[in-house]
Write a structure and sequence with these properties.
It is a single chain. This protein is α/β, with parallel strands linked by helices. The chain folds into two domains: about 10-250, Aspartate Aminotransferase, domain 2; about 250-380, Aspartate Aminotransferase, domain 1, CATH 3.90.1150.10. It is built from 13 helices and twelve strands. It has a seven-stranded mixed sheet, with helices on both faces. Strands 8-9-12-11-10 form a five-stranded mixed sheet, covered by helices on one side. The protein is globular. The chain starts with 7 loop residues before the first helix and ends with a helix. The mean pLDDT is about 95.
Length: about 375
């Protein structure tokens, strides 16, 4: 009997898993070996080695990740920035130009301005909601357009269909960071993107105990990017592969709960007298709410807000009981942070302000605690 394509939830559990399991084990063991015996391979591709991303733990994880995003192939990396760095270094060369979303993650911005520029790669920033302005940014050497599904930290939603249409019209590779949305809320390939990156440290792992990244796309592109990773050495070790594979099995239940909880918390904050503004794509007041309704299956577990009294940020954060005041996102714990001091600290104050990131902006990664208890804690801290 031919097996029909599995649902997202079933793929989370079973894609990439060995059946029957090794010695009957339901969970794939950790293959904590850097070296494997020679079995007659006649080229480097057949040699099994951790740095080549081809141990049993790597193979299982690659298949699961590619299945979830609907791509031909994937390869995991040692961090999200290792994935982004490999994407650019693997597919661009000196003299190339790329278009980059103007509200891109601070680490990506730093890579472009401080490292890639030294190797002769230039970029122009584009407004994700102004498609008519993009053609004026094109150069003869433009090779790629790079976006994010939901931006950090203001939760903007670019016009994704316009981006991929523009890329195909002008022969550009289209790439996207899908970390904030996750493949549960948004699948870039369904809208025409060629390449996808994630920081797997965040929602995919979901337990605040792994640092990693992943690149996804066609077999041809992933083979090229994996070769780049061989040289850069940004490999995920087998134990991290095991933890990521384990964490992903609960992605659907985690993210759906976080979607629902974040929506309720954002609605509470928006009506509170002490709040100046709230950024959450699930709110009708958000500037990109219509894009969010069009592109997203869920509005995500991230939100941001500003206090009316910006001088009270430190006092507010200190008064909270349940959340941690810490960077990163996507774990079971609710995390609050000021992006000006963490994710975007590498930018100048003028650069942050041009992106709409004030020094008093507070970003929230909603965890898995009881929603009403989180709201009560926010209320008492605001009071």
């Amino acid at each position: 009997m031919e097996r029909k394509e599995s649902s997202f939830e079933t793929s989370l559990i079973h894609a990439g898993e060995r059946k029957p399991g090794i010695e009957g084990a339901v969970c794939l063991p950790i293959f904590q070996s850097s070296t494997y015996e020679y079995t007659g391979q006649n080229d480097e591709r057949g040699v099994r080695y951790i740095r080549y991303n081809n141990t049993p733990n790597h193979h299982a994880l690659h298949l699961k990740l590619a299945t979830l995003e609907g791509t031909e192939a994937s390869v995991v990396t040692g961090s999200g920035m290792a994935a982004i760095s490999s994407l650019f270094f693997g597919l661009l060369q000196s003299g190339d130009h790329i278009l980059v979303l103007d509200t891109v993650y601070g680490g990506t911005h730093g890579l472009l301005t401080q490292l890639l520029s030294r190797f002769g790669v230039t970029y122009s920033s584009f407004d994700g909601n102004q498609p008519d302005s993009w053609a004026s940014l094109l150069q003869k050497n433009t090779r790629m357009i790079y976006s994010e599904s939901i931006t950090n930290p203001l939760l903007d939603i670019p016009d994704h269909q316009a981006i991929t249409h523009f890329a195909k019209q002008h022969g550009l590779l289209s790439a996207i960071d899908n970390t904030f949305a996750t493949p549960l809320n948004f699948r870039p390939v369904d809208w025409g993107y060629d390449l996808i990156v994630h920081s797997t440290s965040k929602y995919l792992n979901g337990h605040s105990d792994v640092v990693g990244g992943v690149l996804m796309g066609s077999q041809e592109h992933i083979a090229t990017l994996n070769k780049t990773l061989h040289f850069l050495g940004g490999t995920m070790d087998p134990h991290a592969c095991f933890l990521l594979q384990r964490g992903m099995k609960t992605l659907a239940v985690r993210v759906r709960y976080q979607n629902e909880s974040a929506q309720k918390i954002a609605a509470f904050l928006e009506t509170h007298a002490g709040i100046q503004s709230v950024c959450y794509p699930g709110l009708p007041s958000h500037s990109d709410h219509e894009h969010a309704r069009r592109y997203l299956k869920g509005f995500g577990g991230m939100l941001a807000f500003e206090l009316k009294d910006s001088d009270k940020v430190d006092a507010f954060l200190s008064a909270l009981d349940i959340p941690y005041i810490a960077p990163s996102l996507g774990g079971p714990e609710t995390l609050l942070t000021c992006p000006a001091l963490t994710s975007h600290a590498g930018l100048t104050a003028d650069e942050r302000h041009s992106m709409g990131i004030s020094d008093g902006l507070i970003r929230v990664s909603v965890g898995l605690e009881h929603t009403d208890e989180l709201i009560d804690d926010l209320a008492q801290a605001l009071k």
